């Protein structure tokens, strides 16, 4: 297999490891603080062929892939307007001579927004723009990946108020989301600072002038360098199209997505503002007709939106921008489809990266052999009682193993809640351990959806990524350990 396809190979190896373990390790589940051991549940030949197909047809994973495709469609339309290419070119020229400043800005934007929201997939809508500017500035693809996808994953690792991380920790353990916020902020400062340091230290400019090659239509030119092409960027010289409408519409879409998909009500039960607005609108009647409810259709309040609503926003944004920029409908549709086609390989990998996650949730009883492994480690720490420091390390080990199986954090913490709550009084510290170590694993696991999307989008090999990220992993692990030890000693 070619080196550039080693990502698929890595995913396949993980799948095979899971199959082997299914023949050796018995399954089990936690309930009311106790563990129930089951039998082995080996996967056979038919299962090996069946589960990849199930993964590619499961509605959840198909929806993730659809969002990726629609992001491609959006950028296809943006390029057709000519305003997008001109805007990217203008930003790149503005940061000429200050290239490292843009890398810092990129890392801060992605890490801060992700830390506050934990909405990793919606963040991907910004990735093509930031990647285009970074590559246009002359940096390599690894630098672009570190400054965008890397920042998303680090922000998730050091989540502060993201509902998909801290909200679920608070929900499952019955704790206040603000508890230990100082330690989470400290972790954020350390790991993001380290990412900026590593990125700037390793960032190298691609040698040679950036060249241009003629496109096939309307004298468009796609900017490339000697060694790399820039995805989703077509620049038409001397474009006079205003960028203001594009920025307003795109910005409103992105802000509305973050507001709509962040679970405000469950983070703070007293926050009912969006629910009240939704009720006022949908309950408004003229005569006996709920006029706005009938016009809008089935729509949840802001704060309860999912990838379905995000997908709708991407479609509406794409065609609204195309309409405002007077792109013919036929050309708009063609550009949208072409953008989706370009993003198709990324969407495929996004689906297949979740095959292990699907297998972990295929038993309705929640019985998995990860639970058996976790119970063995937790039982060992309880039996020998070697102190809090060992408990931190052992739970970190469980989180590391769990990260390889569960690429969705809430499912990992949910599977262990019963046992962890019965063993430990300070579950907030336990939550911080699982959050940080799981996030660290997502930086390297071939089952990490956002990482896989970024690697495939930039056509970076998995082994090349590992060679460039291992030093940061080591430093981030030390930073996590420092924060956890301080929390253990002072809380």
Write the layout of secondary structure elements.
Blueprint: H1 6-24, E1 28-31, E2 34-37, H2 45-57, H3 59-81, H4 83-94, H5 99-117, H6 120-123, H7 127-136, H8 141-147, H9 149-157, H10 163-173, H11 181-202, E3 211-214, E4 221-224, H12 244-261, H13 264-267, H14 273-282, H15 291-296, H16 307-324, H17 329-352, H18 355-360, H19 369-384, H20 388-405, H21 409-423, H22 427-441, H23 449-458, H24 462-490
Keywords:
491 residues, mainly alpha, two-stranded antiparallel ribbon, 24 helices
- One letter per element, helices H and strands E, the order comes to HEEHHHHHHHHHHEEHHHHHHHHHHHHH
Structural category is mainly alpha
Average of per-residue pLDDT values: 86
Low-confidence stretches: 208-226
Count up the helices.
24
Count every beta strand, where a strand is a DSSP E run of 2 or more residues.
Answer: 4
Question: How would you sum up the major sheet?
Answer: 2 strands, antiparallel
Spatial order of the strands forming the largest sheet: 1-2
Beta-strand share of residues = under 5%
Helix content range: 55-70%
* Overall radius of gyration: 24 Å
Described by the principal axes of the CA atoms, the overall outline is: globular
